[in-house]
Protein: Methionine aminopeptidase
Organism: Alteromonas lipolytica
Amino acid sequence: MAAIIKTAEEIEKMRVAGKLAADVLMMLGEHVKKGVTTDELNTICHDYIVNVQNAIPAPLNYGHPPFPKSICTSVNHVICHGIPADKKLKDGDIVNIDITVIKDGYHGDTSKMFMVGKPSILAERLVRVTQECLYKAIKEVKPGMRLGDIGHICQTHAEAHNYSIVREYCGHGIGAGFHEEPQIVHYGRPGTGDELLPGMCFTIEPMVNAGKRYSKILPDQWTVVTKDRSLSAQWEHTLLVTDDGVEVLTLRDDEDLERVYHHS
Ligand code: MF3
Ligand code: CO
Ligand code: CO
């Protein structure tokens, strides 16, 4: 099964949905601090998405068993799909917050790392290198790039820092569906895999572990953690392949366009 090429009308809807997802992360910034619970963050996001944006939080009731909350909050050794709970964030925590909204039938999906108080040097470095994996891959996105090139860029950069790439979870096509074809894995060989075409929309969302790459799922059937309990980080954007490059549909005001789009 191949990727869906979006029409001009669909692309406009993807831009709107992507902007809304980015707005949630920007709104959330001031709320992510020591003492707040991840469930309080969930409520803030849920109310904002539903009441201010008139949109739908895609995670709520998604999948089997149905995901019980409106956002994912993945703290420290949680790789992804962390369920908001009544545990307070504490000084030194790193937390990924993953937002997916549905607006007018189309999805915008994005996540970023927040650092609470003063993180360790190791945590800070892991968070930065993981964002660099995402940005280095985004910079190269254009028609003719292959899926294996995306994976290779992420894997090479993470492993150069002695980190590991999670293999069990990946990026994905996105549009009217939350998770569409193709799968975008964050490891691989250059020049392999399907070619990108104008009008494709997909996410890149590398998960990088400070220790080994292996993961396990907790008994709640959602929370994914590192097997060795090492720290893990993730950043995600929703992208559109344009005629000659890429448009980041979930770009935030706090992002440096030079770092996202241009060669360093
Ligand atoms: N937002 C996640 C992704 O990037 C998926 C979360 S599924 C959920 O694909 F059910 F856990 F919300
Ligand atoms: Co996501
Ligand atoms: Co995603």
